[in-house]
Specification:
disordered C terminus, 270 residues, globular, 11 helices, mainly alpha, 66% helix
Length: 270
């Protein structure tokens, strides 16, 4: 059922399916079947024909002093949230033999990401735009494919790196939109920022669970995965308080700040 939801192309149908899936799981109407066939690689998940996908460097930069600029920014976040629905569903479908709490956690994430997508899509509509109007990049799903054979690497590199980056940059977006007088968009992003802390925390929980099961120390393992797979990709500013609330330890933050050439002072980390 998670795979079926993952393959749905229409965003609203996908969101509705995710909510039904979570409700059925919580009601005890579903179970994990050990005899299910093994997962297959999904190069292209269910998504609409638009937005056009381009390289990150080909996306135009726009200021928020114009309506078009605000539309483009919110569209970029909307695209991230749509990808996050698929990522959460893929985490349920792909990685087997984990406790039932793992399924509960990632179905909850999928449902919350679906709600975030709907909030943003509604806000775009009120601004005279919609999902698919602007081009977007495919970085989140490309990392999902790269980590589709190892649950520990997925938990480390998607929730704790790519999604944690959202914790870092969203406060700046909120500040800029507020300065532009867009209080309604600010309200939506504040909801998303608060709940994304919980999503990164879920990634942290299961990364540490998987590392411990392999007899690995989670903190040096995380830093080693960063060095091997994403050298130089984790850059400041860091939303230190949000990352700590999401399960990063003070020593992990110190290591990230040291890699970035920061000294760990509050005014250096944002």
């Amino acid at each position: 059922m998670a795979l079926r939801a993952l393959k749905i192309r229409d965003p609203q149908r996908k969101c509705e399916c995710v909510q039904r899936l979570l409700a059925a799981w919580r009601a005890g109407g579903l179970r994990v079947d050990p005899s299910d066939p093994p997962p297959v690689r999904i190069e292209i998940p269910g998504r609409p024909g638009r937005p056009e996908l381009v390289r990150p460097q080909d996306l135009p930069r726009r200021g928020l002093h114009t309506l078009r600029g605000r539309q483009a920014l919110l569209h970029a976040v909307t695209h991230i949230e749509f990808n996050a629905i698929n990522l959460a569903l893929d985490a349920v479908y792909r990685f087997r033999g984990l406790p039932a709490e793992y399924v509960s956690d990632w179905l909850q994430v999928a449902a919350e990401e679906a709600r975030h997508f709907q909030l943003l899509e509604a806000r775009l509509a009120r601004l005279g735009s919609g999902y698919g109007t602007f081009p977007a990049h495919n970085g989140l799903w490309e990392m999902a494919v790269k980590t589709d054979t190892d649950a520990m690497e997925r938990m480390a590199l998607v929730p704790r790196v790519l999604e944690a980056r959202g914790l870092d940059v969203t406060p700046g977006m909120i500040q800029r939109l507020g300065a532009a007088g867009d209080a309604d968009s600010v309200a939506v992003l504040k909801v998303i920022q608060r709940e994304e802390v919980g999503h990164v925390a879920i990634g942290t929980r299961w990364f540490r669970h998987l590392a411990a099961n392999r007899g690995l120390d989670p903190e040096p393992t995380f830093l080693d995965l960063l060095a091997r797979h994403m050298p130089g990709r984790v850059r400041p500013p860091f939303a230190r308080d949000a990352r700590l609330a999401a399960g990063f330890s003070p020593s992990e933050m110190a290591a990230l700040e040291a890699q970035a050439g920061l000294d760990g002072r509050p005014d250096a980390t944002g």
